[in-house]
Structures are given as C-alpha cells and as structure tokens.
Specification:
Elements (H helix, E strand, L loop, with lengths): L9 H26 L2 H19 L4 H7 L4 H6 L13 H26 L2
Length: 118
C-alpha cells in the first residue's frame, strides 16, 4: 500500500516531524541554559524523554492509560504519528503538552541564567 501526502494525516505528520524536532531542540536549549553543561543537559534530556516512559510501563494498565499520554515522549510523538493510538492525546493536544515542557525548560533556563550571570 502506498502512502501519499494527500492521505489523511500524512501532511500533518510530515509537518509535525519538523515541528517536533524544533521544539525538541528548544527543550534541549532550555536544559542546557539551566544546567550550563552540555553533557548534563543531554543526560537530563534523554532521561526526561525515556525514563518516565519506561517506569510507567511497570505500572498497572489503568495508570498507564491515565499518565502515559502526558509524558514528554508520548505527548510529542502524537504530532508525527499518522494513526495515533486510542488512549493517547490528539496530535495537536499532544504537541501542545510537549511545547509546555519546552516552555518550562526555557523559562527555568532564562530565570537561572539571569540570576547566575547578571
């Protein structure tokens, strides 16, 4: 089966992949600004994306369905997924949650750099 940009959700997924990577870069920038360490920011970024998802898999399925959609990785993934899973947020709602994580990291970074380097 061939997929084209005219198929439902494909153009959004292609555009969403670029948006996701942009916001992921901003999230990393915010963490780097907050920690003032490249290695620390990369470690926290990957830990923030992967560890909660792995830990949630250990919880009962009712908790997974409640908490899972709001985790950074799961929320961001919905924007570039053509057929999202039933228990996940919608594409734009999930992307909005992911943007909130990035905004919080950027705000924390700017506040901390203002206090430390002012």
């Amino acid at each position: 089966m061939r997929t084209t940009l005219a198929d439902p959700g494909v153009l959004r997924a292609v555009t969403g992949a670029g948006l996701y990577l942009t916001v992921l870069g901003l999230l990393g920038f915010g963490l780097g600004t907050a920690f003032r360490s490249s290695a620390g920011a990369v470690a926290v970024l990957f830990g923030m994306l992967f560890v909660p998802t792995l830990l949630t898999a250990l919880l009962p399925s009712s908790w997974q369905d409640t908490l899972g959609p709001y985790l950074p990785m799961n929320a961001g993934d919905t924007i570039y997924t053509v057929r999202p899973e039933a228990h996940m947020l919608g594409p734009w709602a999930g992307f909005g949650v992911f943007c909130l994580y990035a905004a919080a990291a950027l705000a924390a970074g700017f506040v901390l750099i203002g206090r430390r380097d002012a």
